[in-house]
Amino acid sequence: MLPGVEVALNDRDQVAGPMSCSCTPEYRSVREPSSGILVLELAYYFFAVVPPFACLVVLLILLLCPMALNAQRFFVTLAEITNAWSAAEVFAISIIASLLEISTFASFIVGHKCDLIKQILHDYFESAIEDNTDATCFTVRSSVESHAGFLVAGVLVNSFIVSMLLRFIHCCMNQ
Predict the structure, then answer these.
(1) Bridge-partner residues for 26, per DSSP?
(2) 162 Cβ contact partners less than 8 Å away, ≥ 6 residues apart
(3) Can you tell me the distance from the alpha carbon of 63 to that of 75, in angstroms, rounded to the nearest whole number?
(4) What is the mean pLDDT of the chain?
(5) Half-sphere exposure of 127 (CA within 13 A, CB side)
(6) 3-class SS at 148?
(7) Which residues, at least 6 apart from 80, have a Cβ–Cβ distance to it below 8 Å?
(8) What Å distances lie between residue 98 and 7, 35, 91, 114, 115, CA to CA?
(9) What is the pLDDT, as a whole number, of residue 2?
(10) 47, 69 contact by CB (below 8 A)
(11) 56-63, Cβ contacts within 8 angstroms, sequence gap of 24 or more
């Protein structure tokens, strides 16, 4: 959790897609939002949300609107640029990888800092600790829920559609 920020999930705890990652949590901060948080949010929208949709819009314009060859070349270049700047695949993979690795990462950060607490607990509460084998000083548990499949499927469908449409448009322009 970020220092000075509490995250409270809405009443309905649902994972929907890239937009929900920034809209679902309600942030209550003891300070004003820092410029670093705002920069991260802008980068997220600029790379993970806007380019995939912009690429699809540009491709639809290319397919539906008749235009001169120079205008077609401009829009194809624009579609390729927006596709290149799209980081939806990277976003989905990083979300899943971070959820799978957060426990190991947190354990690495904590390291041996819990050894003193473990020793004190063992000395004074030996019988309680032996009964509960899951007793630990610090742990982080995360899981990839079935809703993540929708995010991955959406990213794969978007990538497939964009690559097929770009290939089709390039073939049409070469004829």
Answers:
(1) 8
(2) 52, 55, 56, 59, 79, 83, 86
(3) 10
(4) 78
(5) 0
(6) helix
(7) 166
(8) 18, 24, 10, 23, 26
(9) 36
(10) no
(11) 56/158, 56/161, 56/162, 58/82, 59/162, 59/165, 59/166, 59/169, 62/169, 63/165, 63/169
| Residues 175, 72: Cα–Cα separation, whole Å | 13
Written as one letter, the residue type at 45 is Y
Instruction: State which amino acid sits at residue 60.
Output: L
CA nearest neighbour of 91 among 154, 160, 25, 143: 154
Q: Are 139 and 103 in contact (CB under 8 A)?
A: yes
Is 5 in a helix, a strand, or coil?
strand
pLDDT band for position 58 (cuts 50, 70, 90): very high
**140: CB partners within 8 A, 6+ apart:** 102, 103, 106, 107
With a cut of 80, say whether residue 135 has pLDDT above it: no
Q: What is the pLDDT of residue 27?
A: 46
> Which pLDDT score is estimated for 124?
79
User: Hey, is 125 helix, strand or coil?
Assistant: coil
- Distance set, CA 153 to CA 50, 105, 130 (Å): 18, 27, 45
Which residue type, as a one-letter code, is found at position 69?
Answer: L
